Amino acid sequence: MAESAEQVHARVMAAADEGGRMPLPSVAEWDVFPWEVVDGAMAAKPLAAPAPEKPRMGEDGVDCTICTPEPAGLIWTNDRWRLKHLAERSGLPLVVMLEPWEHLDFDDLDDAMAAEYGRLAVRIARIVEGLPNIGRCHVMRVGDGAEHLHVWFMARTAGLPSVLGSFAVDWDDILPAGPEEPWREDLVALATALASYDGRVVGLDD
Ligand SMILES: [Zn+2]
Fold it and tell me: 97 pLDDT exceeds 80?
């Protein structure tokens, strides 16, 4: 079971500075981060001039690192889709990613794959939102970094009013990762519940 809001808050406060703040995450230094401090006040950055779209990783399936027969962090699979956790735990209690085995972008899905994606996405969100201490499971397809479809499922803790809406993504970088055991328990619970619908649990033996 994921930590309660009170447990998360106590753990984060123990790691924070005397003002209760965690260090700025590296995303604050990214070019696309939209805010900056100007004359001591927070301000929106100027809009950058138009520029050609940069190629995404793995365009047309060339050098795609998501196309691999043995992806790391796998927790569930069927013949067409796979669900995996990221290499490292992060600030939110549970973050997993749904990907097709085949090199397909979102708009490459045919009707059968689109229908299966929809059913899986709803089931994953429903299972995650049914876990104790989880307030919501955010479902996101962004795809600006890599062409191979990868859909984020990001669970936030119930009852933490800072960690809400699209800003939960920022808090995933800000907050220190929680303990491994409840995270692993929730991964097993998610994969097991999804496998009762379709596919099978994989990679959670150790
Ligand atoms: Zn690929």
Answer: yes
User: How many independent structural domains does the chain possess?
Assistant: 1
76 within a domain of the structure (yes/no): yes
Report, as an integer, the average pLDDT of 57-86: 95
Amino acid at 186: D
Residue 137 pairs in a beta bridge with 155
Confirm whether 62 is domain-assigned. Answer: no
- Residue ranges of alpha helices (H) inside 53-196 are 111-129, 168-174, 180-195
Q: Is residue 64, in this structure, part of any structural domain at all?
A: no
Q: How far is the CA of 97 from the centre of ligand 1 (A)?
A: 14
Q: Which domain holds residue 166?
A: 5-23+71-201
CA–CA gap between residue 92 and residue 178 (Å, rounded): 8
- What's the gap in Å between 146 CA and the centre of ligand 1? 8
Structural contact between residues 157 and 163, judged by C-beta atoms closer than 8 angstroms: yes
* Residues 3-55 pLDDT 10s: 999 999 999 999 999 999 999 999 999 999 999 999 999 999 999 999 999 99
Instruction: Evaluate whether residue 155 is within a structural domain.
Output: yes
Distance 110 CA to ligand 1 centre (A): 17
CATH number, domain containing residue 124: 3.30.428.10
Is pLDDT above 60 for 206?
Answer: no
